[in-house]
Design brief:
about 625 residues; eight-stranded mixed β-sheet; about 45% helix; seven-stranded mixed β-sheet; alpha+beta
Length: about 625
């Protein structure tokens, strides 16, 4: 497949993964994401910080002080009646009793409480009893209320109390972390639907009709955004007692402040240690259930709850699909640090947007988006790294192979400039030729494998000397080679380096031949020619090209090998090369010349010098000799 097709397949698979994750979670699977979302919600709530709640609700807490005074819990019904009676006298909007009055007690106490409940607007708490810990929706249910979990039965207040008050179900929905993240607004059994306790209280306090729409509730003409199962998402204002709280003991002491009650919603509930419901919240490890309920009541009345309705769920679905597709697209767009940086910026922007939305009342799901994003992005990035590593290995191997046919300097130059020598270039350069003598005759009597080993050893010495002196072997000509000094560009010391290379080659090859077995070494010799001057450097060949040099300078350097052999020497140097190299000789060598001679295929003469190595044992230091 082409890279474009691979990227398209990756994007499609990423989109399908995101859609699958969202659908699976929305249908009740992947419950581990609920725990992650609960943790992320707690973190976002803490980042948002403590907020002052609308001052609408007062909690009258039956706390440890009250229990110590009375000596028992639950609070005796007569004492509860006194609490309710005192509150009613201060004219609240509504009194909500977050206590289950389901058991009979002393007849006088029950009668007193029943009589007191008739004196003001009251809402009592009931409880939904579910057959198991998991609240499921019955299969095949129809209508908008089908999404409600079906309770086995309702635990209602005694009729003597319920006859004088409205009743609401007080259950809350806790997340995987145990923290209540929402409060159901509606509950059902097989034959009836009950309103929640906070919804009953809010409806009574606002004195507005309640309408149940297919995906939300209406309090009068104001819409109450609920989750898909008619649950009200809640977000905590702060730790316990952030909502105004007074102890019921102030009623028994006669110190209750009228301003804390008058024209307010009053919720009576237990906060006694070991006697009431407590829940962990982002700000408090133990928050009384009455304050959780009061938070939901405040959201309903003030309309300041966090939004997690159908529109938000659609946004969650789109983000779960589009965000991973965008990140994979960025990684595919730039298989480099730029792509990673761009993807990181987008991820940080999403996190910032999610947090900003949460702090401004919109609860976008973070856990589902992470589950939809992290795996495909990680897999694609891993595949990209693996593919990049494979490509790097391939290019390294290719470069290594190329280095075996092209000199490192030319290889680097071609990597920087692929059009190097696409057009011929005229310049000055120095050229060295070397050739083995007697190799053709040796080939007739020697095994091919042995001949290959001989050539390999010979070529290795040529390559070593050329590389050490900065030359380029433009080609091995069977039992010889051409070395060029002046590429990728002409340098002032090209002639000096060519001379040094020729001398090093002479000594290296001479020692190597001497080390061969006599049956081979006695039949081999060598000759070297070196010259400098103008050349034409270019590429030759069709689909398989090689870099070489042509011109008179190259021809003269090649013919100087014949001149060396004709004059009993192994290294012939042109006078032009020696002048350009500014060579003054050295104690371990001698020069004979100049010999002015013609070279085959060329008119005119060339001044030639013959170099001899005087460092070998038995060699006589003759110095420079003139030949007329």
């Amino acid at each position: 497949m082409t890279r474009r097709v691979q990227i398209l397949v990756a994007l499609v698979l990423t989109a399908l993964w995101g859609a699958g994750i969202y659908a699976a979670h929305a249908n009740g699977h992947l419950r581990f994401l609920d725990r992650l979302e609960a943790t992320l919600t707690d973190w976002r709530t803490q980042v948002r910080g403590v907020q002052a709640p609308p001052d609408l609700v007062t909690i009258v807490a039956i706390d440890d002080t009250v229990v110590k005074r009375g000596g028992s819990y639950p609070l005796p019904r007569a004492d509860l009646a006194r609490v309710v009676d005192t509150i009613v006298q201060f004219k609240p909007k509504v009194v909500a009793i977050d206590l289950l009055l389901v058991d009979r007690s002393a007849a006088i106490g029950d009668a007193t409480l029943a009589s007191t409940l008739a004196t003001g607007p009251m809402v009592l708490a009931a409880a939904a009893i579910f057959p198991s810990a998991s609240e499921t929706v019955a299969p095949g249910s129809q209508g908008p209320l089908a999404v409600l979990p079906q309770a086995e039965r309702f635990l209602l207040p005694l009729p003597a109390f319920a006859d004088h008050a409205e009743v609401g179900v007080v259950n809350v929905a806790t997340g995987q972390s145990g923290s209540p993240l929402s409060v159901p607004m509606l509950f059902r059994t097989h034959d009836k639907v009950e309103l929640s306790f906070p919804l009953r209280v809010a409806t009574r306090a606002l004195d507005k009709p309640l309408t149940i729409a297919p995906d939300h509730l209406m309090l009068g003409d104001r819409a109450v955004a609920t989750d898909s199962d008619f649950a009200l998402p809640i977000t905590y204002y702060g730790p316990r007692r952030t909502i105004r709280t007074v102890s019921a003991q102030s009623i028994f002491d006669g110190t209750l402040n009228r301003a804390a009650i008058e024209n307010r919603i009053v919720v009576i509930g237990a906060s006694v240690a070991g006697g009431g419901d407590f829940y962990p919240t982002p700000f408090d490890s133990l928050m009384p259930g009455v304050e959780v309920i009061s938070t939901a009541i405040t959201h309903l009345v003030a309309g300041d709850g966090i939004m997690r309705d159908r529109k938000v769920h659609i946004a969650d679905a789109l983000i779960a699909i589009l965000l991973p597709v965008l990140l994979v697209g960025l990684l595919a767009w730039r298989r480099s640090a730029l792509g990673l940086v761009a993807a990181a910026v987008v991820m940080i922007a999403w996190a910032g947007l999610n947090l900003f939305a949460f702090t401004h009342g919109v609860w976008l799901n973070a856990a589902t988006t992470l589950a939809a994003t992290v795996p495909p992005v990680a897999v694609f990035a891993g595949v990209q790294l693996w593919a990049g590593s494979r490509k790097a290995q391939y290019l390294t191997a290719k470069s290594r192979s190329l280095a075996q046919f092209q000199a490192p300097a030319v290889q680097e130059w071609l990597a920087r400039d692929p059009d190097f020598l696409a057009k011929p270039v005229r310049q000055n350069a120095a050229v060295v030729f070397i050739d083995l003598s007697g190799f053709t005759a040796l080939s007739e009597r020697t095994d091919p494998d042995a001949l290959r080993d001989i050539l390999n050893a010979f070529h290795a010495r040529i390559d070593q000397a050329a590389t050490a002196c900065g030359g380029i072997v433009t080609g091995f000509l069977g039992d010889g080679a051409m070395i060029l000094f002046g590429l990728p560009g002409a340098m002032p010391d090209d002639a000096a380096r060519a001379l040094k290379c020729a001398i090093e080659l002479h000594r290296s090859v001479d020692r190597w031949i001497a080390s061969l077995p006599p049956a081979i070494g006695d039949q081999l010799g060598f000759k070297i020619g070196a010259h400098c001057g103008p050349i034409v450097a270019s590429r030759l060949g069709g689909s398989h090209q090689h870099i070489t040099a042509t011109g008179d300078t190259v021809n003269v350097a090649n013919r100087l090998m014949e001149v060396a052999a004709q004059n009993g020497a192994q290294l012939a140097l042109s006078d032009t090369l020696l002048d350009a190299a500014d060579f003054l000789g050295d104690p371990d060598s001698s020069l004979r010349g100049p010999l002015r001679t013609q070279v085959r295929g060329r008119s005119g003469t060339v001044a030639v010098w013959f170099w001899r190595d005087e460092s070998k044992p038995g060699a006589a230091a003759t110095g420079a000799e003139m030949i007329d």
